[in-house]
Amino acid sequence: MATLVSADKEKQLAERMLALGVREADIDEQFVRSSGAGGQNVNKVSSCVVLHHRPSGIRVKCQQERSQALNRFLARRILLDKIDTQQRGAASAEAQRIEKIRRQKRKRSHRAKMRMLDDKRHQSEKKGRRSTVRDD
Length: 136
Known about the structure:
single chain, alpha+beta, Double Stranded RNA Binding Domain, 2 domains, three-stranded antiparallel beta sheet, 5 helices, 3 strands
């Protein structure tokens, strides 16, 4: 059977663990049966991975894929994301992504809205003047 996670991705994960100060010895790993769709494989094989990082107290559960090996890799990535968010707070990539979404959803000021509507009206008038020339 071919490996599910490339050696390059495994190496990147190990480097990220080292950068965040997470040791493999600090992680408790548990395998449980997944739930949901998947048929006999889900019912018989413990492919769901539960990781517990003892120093931070963070617990992660991953059952995205049918393969236990792939779920182990994905669970470690999720765990590192959560540890990164906990350590760096507002500077973490996750916090920045959430803040970007919050800014996008924020209501426009009245002035900005009026300017946008004026631009749309101007564009509409330009397109309206593009009608074909008729010979009378």
